[in-house]
Amino acid sequence: MDVLSDVLGAVRMTGAIFFDIDAGSPWIGESPETSAIATAIMPGAEHVISFHAVLSGSCWAAISNAGAPPVLVDEGDVVLFPTGAPNVLSSAPGVRGVPNMAMYYRPIDRHLPFSVIHGGDGPERTRFICGYLGCDKRPFNPLLAALPPILIARPPDDGKSWIIDFFRRAISEGASGRAGGETILAKLSELMFVEVIRRYLETLPQDARGWLCALRDPKVGEALRLIHACPADDWTLNSLARAVGMSRSTFAERFQHYVEVPPMQYLARWRLQLASRLLERPGISIAQAGADVGYESEAAFNRAFKKFVGTPPGIWRKTRGNGSDTAPETRPT
Q1: CB 137 within 8 A of CB 320
Q2: How far out from the chain centre does Cα 133 lie?
Q3: SS3 of 137, please?
Q4: In angstroms, rounded to a whole number, what is the distance separating the alpha carbons of residues 218 and 166?
Q5: Domain boundary among 170, 203, 236
Q6: SS3 state at 308
Q7: Are 222 and 294 members of one domain?
Q8: DSSP helix, strand, coil percent of the chain (3-state; round to 5)
Q9: What is the count of structural domains for the chain?
Q10: Contact at 8 Å (CB) between 10 and 277?
């Protein structure tokens, strides 16, 4: 069981490239918090992550109003904002602008990405693409809590097989108007995200904590694989500890050290995430959704769901259904 892949599938990770920007110095691009534009750019997504990939040139990136110094982003780098924080890219550090909210919509009469010429006519130019990744945040997305507010991924030392090369080719092909280009870029965005997460994990110290670090621990990682492979099984703290060859107390302490929640609490939360997806399927009853993830009765499932999510599963399903019917915003060119 590949736990990271399982989580990415269960939280419905989807991608999109929105802007292909050719910027001449001096320039500044201020982006709003993604919660303010989520309905317009990725209707149905509960949480939206923004990212920028530099195809050529360089720029400075920072979270707006965070107080932290801006970071230099060079050709081949990708900068992500996993929490959806407002951010700024610019040709010089420390400058600010105002987001253009009218830019954020899904067109109905042309394909993404929008091509944008931006900034001044100075000799220093930066080419970069801007995109978004949508995913579930609730009931439980363990990956989001494991990521920093800003994440910068550099290309590998040998420069081979880096996602930027694929973005360059896809953007070039898209300019020819061939069908399917928007989908290719969307899938590349998802692939990029996985590669960035893997590279980020490789940079973390061996004694670091968090869900991602738990994946590489031999014992806790194996426990997570068992939970994700068979979430509906009748797991107990004792049976999980035995399965990974540890005592009950040592396993519980080690699991909480890395994952930062007790093993059975993690199992319960993951079951609710899976159940929330089942509730969106036509013809699946609340009792069946609960039973499929390991609850012995509809009453027990209802209690657990309401306690953790804050609303009963029946109301959750109606709310999610209404959200999926929301039509994307459109504007004329």
Answers
A1: no
A2: 6
A3: coil
A4: 33
A5: 203
A6: helix
A7: yes
A8: 40, 20, 40
A9: 2
A10: yes
User: Would you say residue 332 lies in a domain?
Assistant: no
Pairwise CA distance, residues 73 & 153, whole Å: 9
- β-bridge pairing 14-24 and 87-90: unpaired
Residue 331 included in any domain = no
CA Rg, the chain, in Å?
22
Q: Tokens 């001449």, residue?
A: 24
Alpha carbon distance 130, 49 (integer Å): 11
Indicate whether 194 and 101 sit together in one domain: yes
Rounded-to-integer distance, Cα 150 and Cα 80, Å: 6
Tell me the average confidence (pLDDT) per consecutive run of 10 residues in the chain, 333 residues long: 93 93 96 96 94 96 90 95 96 92 90 91 93 95 94 82 81 71 88 92 89 95 98 97 97 96 97 95 94 96 95 91 39 39
Q: Are residues 131 and 235 located together in one domain of the fold?
A: no
Q: Are 30 and 62 in contact (CB under 8 A)?
A: no
Closest by alpha carbon to 331, among 67, 143, 140, 109?
109
Per-residue pLDDT at 288? 96
pTM above 0.90? no
Given 152, 178, 203, which residue is the final one in a domain? 203
How many CB atoms sit inside 10 A of residue 120's CB?
A: 12
For helices 218-229 and 248-259, give the axis angle rounded to 10 degrees. 90
